[in-house]
Write a structure and sequence with these properties.
The protein has eleven helices and 18 strands. By secondary structure, it is of the alpha/beta class. The strands form three sheets. Strands 1-16-15-2-3-4-5-6-7 form a nine-stranded mixed sheet. A seven-stranded mixed sheet has the order 8-9-10-11-12-13-14. The two termini are about 45 Å apart. The structure holds zinc ion (ZN) (2 copies).
């Protein structure tokens, strides 16, 4: 239906003078948003039955100032300030962008990895101990494929990632962590054939294998039943028949792409043309192939993630290759961070306005009790497991310069150099009051 060559003047969705030749009627802002042109994180409540997709990063390599490593955040609206979140891949720099998007560290969870190339999970070891330290007292949930041998699967990667983090985790065990270091890994068969890998509270996520140079790369499709909305991220790989079948009719379909310009890439990258061709032809999708898949899948929005934003003639070439097969709604997902709001009636794209400096969402003590539980007047922080004194020679503390020598006398305070024996008690209602938050507000509010 939407297959139309670039040279055709017809809009595949129907002729609308002044409406472009690739844009449908449903490409318009949904009623929920507060600014039509820019997404300002933390300023919009995502309504029930509305999906928001944020491309936290979109490059394989190199990561650049414009594009972090590949990562897609899918948020499902619940009418509260903290929607239900899923993360698909977590490349280098994605964490930085997620925090700038006001994702509270304590609520950073449910990470689905398409395969174990490091450009798809580089920020996992960085994120893990710090979000535990910032109040994620529950286990991290990670989903990913097995491999042909046990050591090629997600379980193995996570186990050894934690071994890599031993020094860090022990050091932070002088802080309250509770169950924050535990990782619940759901490793599913890499060759699951549209198999269900997640099925909770009306959201089903399926996976199927992809051809990416080695067994163990998968695609994901998320179906949100109540809203009747779906999202597909293929991860890396060659255009394939299973993807054409299982991604059928997805509201938003995202795959990877690169231009078929190996002779130019050999000049710009300094690699031989054969090496470039070998990499593309065994591992990746050309834009021709991506456009062909779009035409097969017929999504409401087709997108390319995991690409190098070239600008100039190469970007134009990329678009032309896609348009050789696909005439419908399309976007590139960089530079960071592009945001899509999706309802049954509307799809709308904006770029996020992000702070360059640190501006993270603060911990809300209401997240420390199970949803629906009444907030107590007092809460005891979890007890640290390995006191500082047990993991550091006393000589290192003894060599510290006496604070008395550098503190101005009128501001000097007692040093909290060890965790108090009676523990630390927080008073959630007072904490919230100090922030001007009425405790009768929505319990998921920031
Ligand atoms: Zn990749
Ligand atoms: Zn890959």
């Amino acid at each position: 239906m939407n297959g139309v060559l670039l040279s055709s003047p017809n809009n595949p969705y129907g002729s609308r003078p002044g409406g472009g030749i690739s844009l449908p009627d449903y490409y318009r802002p949904p009623m929920s948003i507060s600014n039509r042109n820019v997404y300002f994180p933390g300023t919009e409540v995502l309504p029930k039955n509305e999906m928001r997709i944020s491309f936290l990063g979109s490059t394989p390599f190199p990561p650049t100032r414009l594009q972090a490593g590949t990562s897609i955040m899918v948020e499902l609206g619940n009418g509260g300030p903290q929607p239900r979140r899923f993360f698909f891949d977590l490349g280098s720099g994605a964490l930085k962008n997620a925090l700038a998007m006001q994702v509270p560290p304590a609520l950073f969870n449910d990470i689905f990895i398409t395969h174990l190339h490091v450009d798809h999970y580089a920020d996992l070891p960085y994120m893990h101990p710090f979000t535990a330290w910032m109040g994620r007292f529950e286990p991290l949930r990670v989903y990913g494929p097995s491999g042909s041998r046990p050591e090629l699967g997600t379980n193995h990667m996570i186990k050894h990632m934690r071994e890599m983090l031993v020094w860090h985790e022990e050091n932070f065990d002088a802080f309250p962590i509770a169950k924050g270091y535990e990782i619940d890994v759901t490793e599913f068969p890499w060759d699951a054939d549209n198999g269900i890998v997640y099925d909770h509270d009306g959201v089903v996520i399926r996976s199927w294998p992809r051809s990416h140079g080695k067994n163990g790369a998968v695609a994901y499709r998320l179906d949100w039943e109540e809203a009747d909305l779906s999202f597909v991220w293929t991860g890396d790989g060659r255009p394939d028949e299973k993807t054409a079948e299982y991604a059928q009719g997805a509201d938003v379909f995202v795959t990877e792409g690169q231009a078929d310009t190996p002779q130019l890439q050999s000049i710009t990258m300094g690699m031989s043309q054969e090496m470039v061709e070998y990499t593309i032809d065994g591992w990746h999708s050309l834009y021709y192939g991506a456009g062909y898949l779009f035409e097969q899948v017929q999504p409401r929005m087709a997108a390319i993630c995991h690409y190098v934003a070239g600008g100039g003639p190469i970007e134009s070439e990329a678009m032309s290759e896609i348009r050789a097969h696909w005439g419908g709604l399309f976007m590139f997902t960089g530079p960071d961070v592009q945001v899509l709001n999706v309802t049954k009636d509307a799809i709308w794209h904006r770029e996020a306005a992000l702070p360059d400096g640190a501006a993270i969402a603060s911990l809300d003590p209401r997240w420390l009790v199970p949803p629906g539980t009444e907030l107590p007047d007092e809460m005891q922080m979890p007890t640290p497991r390995i006191p500082r004194a047990d993991q550091q020679d006393a000589s290192l503390r003894d060599m510290e310069i006496d604070p008395h020598l550098y503190y101005p006398p009128d501001v000097e305070r007692d040093q909290v150099s060890k965790w108090p024996e009676e523990g630390i008690t927080i008073r959630p209602k007072e904490m919230l009051k100090a922030r001007g938050i009425d405790i009768d507000d929505d319990p998921t509010a920031d």
